[in-house]
Amino acid sequence: MRVKITLARASSEQEIKMPLDFRRHFISFIKTMIKGSQAFTRFEEERPGYSPYVFSINFKQIIDINRTLQEMTVKPPITMTVSSGLFDPITAICNGAIVSKGEKTVLGLTVQDVQLLPLKQIRSNMVEFKIAGHAVLRSAEDYVDGSNIGELEEAINTHLVTKAGFLRNGDNSELPENKITAVRVLPPAEYRKGVCYHYGGQLTTLQGKIRLAGSPEALQFLYDFGLGVRTGQGFGLLEVVNEL
Fold it and tell me: In which domain, by residue range, is 69 found?
């Protein structure tokens, strides 16, 4: 399940300056949207664990990036896509966004439109995905940049299986039992190392396209909940390019 939220300022042609470290503002926006719902309770826990959703931010046009000032100039609108395999988080975000329509929210932007996207059901054992922005993957020692395919596969599968178990233990009967198993990374390698500003520092990330093979349930889980870690912080949303 996915919802797309469109944000802009009063003038659709007005350029917007925003920090390169912009994701933290949209994390706060999600918190505001779901406050009072069951989905918000994870933010009240000391160790909330894996996020039950993933989101990405898309700009109509990036006009300029100033690394000295650590800000960028973008052309609106800005779209926020949120995905989850669970009904409750998407419902809470949809309702919160609808209530916020016409009001100034994150970075002085106004919610202009809320659109529930068509359901996507993956039926293939091989899918070519596009990473929307950046994905963050960790090994036992450090962040993974994709240069070692074995390390990349291990990181993807560690996060995948651990996250599936965590969410299933949260009494989410919507998740399939015992069908979310390890996936393989297929050639060619169209992904690359990226670097992203986040919470005052820089993260090593993965960008581009990635082909994965596995059970349809595992591939659906990655589509619904995102690739890697920090998915609730705006990393790892996948878009289906092609079912192979």
Answer: 2-117
Rounded Cα–Cα distance for residues 47 and 25 (Å):
21
Among 132, 193, 138, CA closest to 162: 138
This prediction has a pTM of: 0.93
Query: Which H helix or E strand runs over 115?
Result: strand 110-117
* 76 and 169 together in one domain: no
Question: Which of these three, 117, 135, 154, is where a domain ends?
Answer: 117
Nearest to 227 by CA among 172, 147, 146: 146
The helix/strand/coil state of 222 is helix
Each residue's pLDDT tens digit, 15-63: 889 999 999 999 999 999 998 888 788 888 777 788 999 999 999 889 9
Determine contact, residues 226/2, Cβ cutoff 8 Å. Answer: no
Structure tokens at 140: 């036992």
Q: Are residues 103 and 147 in the same domain?
A: no
The H-or-E segment that residue 107 falls in is none
Q: Are residues 99 and 158 in the same domain?
A: no
